[in-house]
Amino acid sequence: MASNIPFRTRFVGHSDSVAELSFSPNGESGHYLASVGRDGLGIVRCCGTGQIVSSLKGHQGPVSGVSFGANAPIVATGSEDRTARIWSATSGHELEQFRHKNMVASVALDTESKRLLTSSRQHDAKIRLYDVNQSQECLSVYRKNRRGVRNVIFCREDRSFIASSYDRTVELWDISSGKVSHQISLPHHAKSLELCADGKTVTIGYGESIVFFNAETFDILGHHRMLFKVMGASLHPQKRSFVSADNKGFIYKFDYDTGHLQYKFKSHIQAGDNVTNVKYSPDGEMYASCSTDGLITFWPQTAENEHYSEDSVTYISSDSNDEDYDP
Fold it and tell me: What would the pLDDT profile of 294-322 be if each residue is shown by its tens digit?
């Protein structure tokens, strides 16, 4: 992805807090970044220039879920207006609408862009599976017996999905049987949930920790404790590094193999605002952060940090035998 965007470039477009980001996979025309926020708007940008490609207008409430299609130029969104919607990424036209009885918190498109998962953060919420082209009929319903679901992602070549919930669990569901095969219990609910480009490594950020685990076995690959509240975490596609954001506007970049802090950046958000999430691009050449002031910031992977100092160590590494999660 060729980009001439200067380091720490901020982009406007949202009038309220940005809740979630989703990058498009590798494509001949380059990468796109979709963002959604409390202003009820979705925005698709060109990663090479930062220019807005389309605006996704139609939701009647805050939007908290967004997912790019892998093999089709479509974007899925989920909103408090109790709908999930499919849009053309390039034109912004609404293609399908899926009505729910509860607010939709998270959406996920499979790798063929044919199926859609939706979830709700409300109590006794359900996870639903849809055919992208059949908005009137739900394919399957997966029932949670406790608190609502924050995030869902497809995994295991789309045979399964992982759901993180407010009951402080991360669960692996088999799509065909509708049963949970693996579970991790956490001391706090997960703030972010992401599947790496390798299709096997899952990244979760919660409390003051970042954990990597294998999507096939649920074995813990690494557990890193921070001295800050983790607002989001993302792993480089080739697992060279991982990034995280805190609740004071700082972005941190770590070496994946050693866990050592490489760089620390100030996002320059306004006083009283927070970074809400951070995501790597599919080629690993940049990562993007979003914040409650409605701004999106691009960070080149190769940028050097003139602001990092050894006097401000904010990281502690711990091995996978730490007891603040329960596989």
Answer: 999 999 998 654 444 433 333 333 343 34
What is the SS3 assignment for 130? strand
Report CA dihedral (292, 294, 299, 304) to the nearest 10 degrees: -60
Length of the chain: 327
pLDDT of residue 104: 96
The DSSP output letter for 324 is S
* Strand order across the 241-245 sheet: 232-235, 241-245, 250-255, 261-266
How many angstroms separate the CA atoms of 128 and 116, rounded?
8
**Tens-place pLDDT, residues 53-97:** 999 999 999 999 999 988 789 999 999 999 999 999 999 999 999
Strand order from edge to edge, sheet including 160-165 = 149-155, 160-165, 169-174, 180-185
Alpha carbon distance 299, 290 (integer Å): 11
Per DSSP, the three-state class of 11 is strand
Q: Where are the beta strands (DSSP E) in 59-189?
A: 63-68, 74-79, 83-88, 94-99, 106-109, 115-119, 126-131, 134-143, 149-155, 160-165, 169-174, 180-185
Rounded to a whole number of angstroms, the CA Rg of the chain reads 18
- Note whether 78 and 84 are within 8 A (CB): yes
Q: How is residue 64 written in tokens?
A: 């908290």
The CA-CA-CA angle for residues 78, 194, 65, to 5°, reads 10
Residue identified by tokens 């294998």 is 214
Would you state the pLDDT for residue 308? 43
The answer to whether 106 and 154 are in contact (CB under 8 A) is no
